[in-house]
Task: structure prediction
Amino acid sequence: MEHLQAYRAAGGGKHRANKPIEARARNRRLLIAAAVLFAAGLAGSESKAQSSPFAPMAGSWSGGGTVTLDDGSTERIRCRAKYAPIGPTMELSLTCASDAYKFNLGANVRAEGSAITGSWSEASRNISGALQGRGGGGNFEVVASTAGFNANIALRTSGNKQTVTIRADSQFRGANIALSK
Result:
């Protein structure tokens, strides 16, 4: 019996043959705990992103469509869009070009309930103004305005597809754009 007590005291009260098994079990528990914490953090970030009315739009999109110029002619255009939602706000950029036409629309918007407000600018023409409208869940209808210019902009997002329709009263008549992620 004394021999068993001395053996246990030398091994910290545990049999040495159990140490590798215990270490593996402890490492497994740590790994499981880390995985649970990672999954909880990921779920939390997804729920925060989904709580934004702009969440379905997040990311980079590309596609094409047509632009109708003020003389009534139409041209095919290629477009790229980037949407960066952060809670109730979003920064966006939409660049479209054809052989003879280009526009660079940028905006910063904020949602309060279904009301959308913000500012916009068009870099190639050096104009800017205010945005206001309504929407949510990736679908919005807004009016972009400045002195001498008004445009109705509709964005419809469904999964990885999006349509952008712009109708203006000057500069150009409008654009119809289909984008995908």
